Amino acid sequence: MREARLLLIDADIKITPSLRTAIAIHQFRRQQRRRAPRTGLRRVITAEENSSTSSSSEVSIAHELERGDAAVQEVPVLPFRIGHGFDLHRLEPGLPLIIGGVNIPHDRGCEAHSDGDVLLHCIVDAILGALGLPDIGMLFPDNDPKWRGAASCVFVREAVRRMKEMGYTLGNLDATIILQRPKLSPHKPAILANLCDLLEADQSVINIKAKTHEKVDSLGENRSIAAHTVVLLMRK
Ligand SMILES: [Zn+2]
Fold first, then answer.
1. pTM for the full predicted model
2. CA distances from 25 to 22, 28, 66, 76 (A)
């Protein structure tokens, strides 16, 4: 049906720049879907050479292309997908501080339903976000007793499982942890090794940075901890 519609409109149209763009986008999407035939598009573009009039509306043609896309209802398979994750937890005395799966000696730790690992939480959200999936709170609700005190590596392994299931592998990951105290540099090698294991990735594609918050706001007053992560996923 889709091919037939495209063949019908190739009689007397003039290819304008905007129509060419619509066709290019359409063509790119089809290539992404790895669908072999492009006969209809070729016929439309060929019409440019034979056409001297413009009796068809480029808008309607673009809509025709779009309707064709909607009717097929296929999700484009992108060669790369990026995702961003952010997390923040309050710090309270008497709780463990766990960052990247590593227990960090400190006078306080994260208030959370799970183990409160701010770095792993935002890594999970970055991966899920890149895949277009619901976030960590949707997949592992904090009102579910099953996740009370859970080690956050469970969440990362599930995100990685979904990533592989959808045909992607980690390209690289860049994370920034924001905390006033303690200094994270002595713990970075252990955190990095843990992330390599959890993400099944080489150290060369994982980067972790730590910053203070210049004693400003809750982060700078040692009352909270936050982290940002950006990931690039690559199609396998
Ligand atoms: Zn969290």
1. 0.69
2. 5, 5, 10, 12
